[in-house]
Design brief:
The chain has about 250 residues and is an alpha+beta fold. It is built from 7 helices and 6 strands, in the order βααββαβαββααα. A hairpin with a 4-residue loop joins β2 and β3. α1 runs antiparallel to α2 and α5 packs across α7. The chain is elongated, with a radius of gyration of 24 Å.
Length: about 250
């Protein structure tokens, strides 16, 4: 399950609040630099929700959520507990943002006044009247959404939507870049781990590298364990005393 993050928008005091014109271009450039300086997808989302409150006109809160087909939802980052509570499904598993389903087919969804939608919604109960939801990522199984919230009705007009779409384009690129970096880092770690495990098996079983790797693969399949996890188990066992690993070819 992914980590969850809370961040204060005040961390980005050097950015102009609700920029326009050339100031907007400069603010987006600075925001892109902050986003690409992050070290992981979690850090990128952490930074993005804080920047959203700084950049989007009238935004008071922001959060990022992942929605799976069938309506399952989980919050990934938020600026405060109000947003976390607003994004969590209520009893029965229903999303508090019924319009989010539209984000499978459209990049932006706005709520102009939650109280006008019957007055009994989770948003109106928290005093959140307006939302601007922007799609960050989507595939056939899940989508990732950045949502800005405001306490006044009709807070997010065309300007906020335009800035939001420009901003989320930067967020999406930074998130993809951070994901690739994380995957490459993990791949390097996995390669090194498997190399260590192969060397241990070569010595223990008196076989060559190809035979050791084949033995590792067969044991992984037999025990229904990921190759990486089995390699880690062998390395850990070898560094201790009395551990067990792969003992047959």
């Amino acid at each position: 399950m992914p980590k969850r993050f809370v961040v204060a928008a005040s961390e980005f005091t050097d950015l102009p609040r609700f920029p326009v014109g050339f100031e907007l271009a400069e603010a987006l450039t600075a925001a892109a630099g902050d986003l690409h300086a992050t070290g992981s997808p979690g850090d990128t989302m952490n930074t993005a929700v804080a920047l959203a409150v700084r950049l989007l006109p009238d935004a008071e809160h922001a959060g990022i959520s992942e929605i799976q087909r069938g309506g399952r939802l989980r919050s990934l980052a938020w600026t405060d507990e109000t947003v976390r509570f607003a994004a969590e499904p209520r009893q029965g598993g229903h999303t508090p943002h019924p319009d989010w389903e539209r984000l499978w087919t459209t990049p932006v969804v706005r709520t102009d006044d939650s109280e006008a939608e019957g007055g009994g919604s989770v948003l109106s109960g928290l005093g959140l009247r307006s939302t601007l939801s922007l799609r960050l990522r989507a595939d056939r199984r899940r989508l990732t959404v950045l949502t800005a919230y405001a306490r006044k009705p009709q807070a997010f007009g065309e300007d906020a939507t335009r800035i939001g779409r420009l901003f989320t384009a930067h967020v999406s690129l930074a998130l993809d870049s951070a994901t690739v970096r994380e995957q490459l880092t993990e791949a390097m770690r996995t390669r090194d781990l498997i190399g260590q495990a192969t060397g241990i098996l070569m010595e223990r079983l008196d076989i060559d590298a190809a035979g050791a790797f084949e033995s590792l693969v067969k044991a992984s399949q037999r025990e229904n364990v990921k190759l990486r996890d089995l390699a880690r188990r062998i390395v850990d066992a070898n560094s201790g005393t009395g551990g067990r690993g792969v003992t047959e070819r």
